[in-house]
Write a structure and sequence with these properties.
about 250 residues; alpha/beta; about 10% strand; five-stranded parallel sheet; Rossmann fold
Amino acid sequence: MLALEWLSNARGVMERIEKTQTENIRKAAELMADSIEAGRWVHTFGCGHATIPVEEMYPRIGGFVGFHPMVELPLTFFTRITGEMGVHQFLFLERAEGYGIEIMKGYDFDARDTMWIFSHTGINNVNIDVALEAKKRGMKLVVCGSAAESEGKQTRHSCGKTIFELGDVVVDSCVPLTDASVPLKNHFDRIGPVSTMGFITLVWMTVTTVAEILADRGVHLYIHPSHNVPGDTTARQRLDAALAEYKSRVKVL
């Protein structure tokens, strides 16, 4: 049954992350905790389906203020498939060197910030642009993606490096380079991608570690509560407090 084969593959990704990436996750979380404790940001970025972990992380029930999602609409909203903002345009834009430089002009950054980029293969130009610009500004760079599987792949960027070669901390998503993981009879291409499962696993393992570090340091976190639980009479106030804290911080961007 192919459904169970996909499930096994997804579990395998999570198990490999647990066995091999906990130390790197801790290193990444330490950098992020330093940024948030300083009243600054962890900026999060990705293209295509690698924006899913960005959107999953914040704003989200159980997430907390300190993570700033940088979601560039033409690089994420291509579900019209063809026509306006379709897949063809997306593929062109994520490979357009210089586009990421223009994206970065829209924000005010600080050397105390951390940039967190999700990229499955690490070779496309927009992600590398953003990474290079972040490092120019003195930010620490955390990269999540299929680092080991992508080793030896040729970058598309004129700098000559993949994003994995630029990261201060690289956390491997432990996903096969093909992403799709289930072979289908009478077909060349596989089905059942697992990169999203890998990315989301890394998101919550990292974010919970950041929270643990900050709590141990005595830092108060502005957590987004569930506002759908009967009897929780202060949920809206806690949500309003989190949004107020976000608003006060985002003014510097």
